[in-house]
């Protein structure tokens, strides 16, 4: 078993034991029933009391063979509306950017990544915009931004 696979198996076990409330994260199930430990399907709940509340946002984590030395790539669906999410859906967040630019450390856990992304939803980093339309709207038309976020939340209702 590779170091990446061993670490991800450990993360999976820790997640099952103690996951943050409302979050979902599991390795991808392949058509033949096998598990792809390096690709995770996750869902991040919108924080209560924010415009993101009521949404359960799909996020895919892709882990390289070099994990945990390198961070996973984190992707919302393409076109996701947020100042720190590229048009492709890739999340721009310091804890999932490799050194020296980002602040990734091999000790960062799956739970910390997902909670960090949940926090980013309502508190975007305007110093590092990834998507200009969402950034401009957030900076200059906050009421419209909030409406668009609520509309997006309705597109991602909680799973049954």
Automatic annotation (TrEMBL):
Keywords: ATP-binding, Nucleotide-binding, Nucleus, Transferase, Ubl conjugation pathway. Pathway: Protein modification; protein sumoylation. The active site is at 92 (glycyl thioester intermediate). One of its GO terms (molecular function) is ubiquitin-like protein transferase activity. InterPro entries: Ub_conjugating_enzyme (IPR050113), UBC (IPR000608), UBQ-conjugating_AS (IPR023313), UBQ-conjugating_enzyme/RWD (IPR016135). Coiled coil: none annotated. It is found in: Nucleus. The keyword ATP-binding applies. SMART domains: UBCc. It holds the Pfam family UQ_con. Its main location: nucleus. It comes from the Eukaryota. GO terms for cellular component: chromosome; nucleus. Residues 3-158 form the UBC core domain. Gene3D superfamilies: Ubiquitin Conjugating Enzyme. Belongs to the ubiquitin-conjugating enzyme family. This is SUMO-conjugating enzyme UBC9. It comes from Tetradesmus obliquus.
């Amino acid at each position: 078993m590779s170091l990446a696979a061993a670490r991800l198996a450990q993360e999976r076990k820790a997640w099952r034991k103690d996951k943050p409330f409302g979050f979902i994260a599991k390795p991808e199930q392949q058509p033949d029933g096998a598990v792809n430990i390096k690709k995770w399907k996750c869902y991040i709940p919108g924080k209560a009391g924010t415009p993101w509340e009521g949404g359960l946002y799909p996020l895919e984590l892709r882990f390289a063979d070099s994990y945990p030395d390198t961070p996973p790539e984190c992707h919302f669906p393409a076109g996701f509306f947020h100042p720190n999410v590229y048009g492709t859906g890739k999340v721009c967040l310091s804890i999932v950017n490799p050194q020296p630019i980002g602040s990734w450390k091999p000790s960062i856990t799956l739970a910390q990544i997902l909670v960090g992304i949940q926090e980013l939803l309502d508190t975007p980093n305007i110093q590092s915009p990834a998507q200009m339309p969402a950034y401009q709207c957030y900076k200059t038309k906050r009421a419209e931004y909030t409406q668009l976020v609520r509309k997006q939340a309705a597109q991602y209702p909680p799973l049954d």
